[in-house]
Write a structure and sequence with these properties.
By secondary structure, the chain is α+β, with helices and mostly antiparallel strands. The chain has a single domain (3-210), classed as NADH Oxidase, CATH 3.40.109. The chain is built from 5 helices and 9 strands; from the N terminus they run H-E-E-H-H-E-E-E-E-E-H-E-H-E. The strands form 2 sheets. A 7-stranded antiparallel sheet has the order 2-5-4-3-7-9-8, sandwiched between helices. It binds flavin mononucleotide. Flavin mononucleotide binds at residues 49-50, 52, 127, 181-185.
Length: 214
């Protein structure tokens, strides 16, 4: 679907998910993430960049698990995460839009919980490549977890956490030969509807990840 068509549908409030493809599971157990190895940090930083051409090829579950752990996994016994959050609110949820459905990443249990049995990828942005890539991440702030943060600061602090998560994804992608781009140009109402979000939840940004085309 072209960007223009999406813009028109979005203006009419009609940007909707497509039917799911493949096996839609209510819960997907992720393999234990591999926490060692990978490219040296300085080399990954040298290769970090945004890319917008994706091959229509899925990621193996083990690679997806590693990616999500790098993004915002639990990395300490006290349930600390790979990205910081104000007052350790851990207010960001990562939704993973796959061809088989949209899932919520549960970092503690290391599982993906189904939230929508549809292909939400093309709803996650106006740009056409979002439907071709293996997956689109959606970063959602849950304001109900930020009760200790002053109201006026909540959105900006949640955006800072999202930026840190996004950079984790960029570095993981650089290290693993994947392509990625963070995106703000999205129809937030359409995404919120597709993911069945409640009024405490705010869609901040989306990030496409997949194999580079060619
Ligand atoms: C907050 C933010 C929003 C962005 N939104 C989009 C977007 O909607 N679509 C897109 O293609 N790129 C988007 N980008 C990616 C930027 O265009 C990209 O980072 C910039 O051109 C620099 O390129 P580089 O990431 O390769 O260094 C966004 C980046 C940031 C930080």
């Amino acid at each position: 679907m072209s960007t223009l068509t999406k813009l028109a549908l979005g203006m009419m409030g009609q940007l909707r998910p497509k039917p799911a493809q493949g096996d839609t599971l209510p819960k997907m157990a992720l393999p234990a993430p591999q926490k060692d190895g990978g490219m040296a940090l300085m080399e990954a930083l040298s290769k970090r960049h945004s890319a917008r051409d994706f091959a229509p090829k899925e990621l193996a579950l083990s690679l997806l698990s590693n990616l999500l752990w790098a993004a915002y996994g639990v990395n300490r016994p006290d349930k600390g995460r790979t990205a910081p959050s104000a007052l350790n609110s851990q207010e960001i949820d990562i939704y993973v839009a796959l061809p088989s459905g949209a899932y919520l990443y549960d970092a503690t249990e290391n599982v993906l919980q189904l939230v929508a049995a549809s292909d939400v990828r093309h709803v996650t942005g106006y740009q056409d490549f979002v439907s071709d890539a293996a997956l689109d991440l959606v970063f959602v702030a849950d304001h109900s977890r930020m009760k200790l943060v002053p109201v006026a600061k909540r959105e900006s602090y949640a955006s800072v956490t999202t930026g840190a998560i996004s950079q984790n994804v960029y570095l993981f992608a650089a290290s693993n030969g994947l392509a990625t781009v963070i995106r703000a140009w999205i129809d937030r109402d359409a995404v919120a509807d597709a993911l069945w979000l409640n009024h405490d939840q705010q869609v901040l940004l989306s990030q496409t990840v997949g194999y580079p085309k060619g």
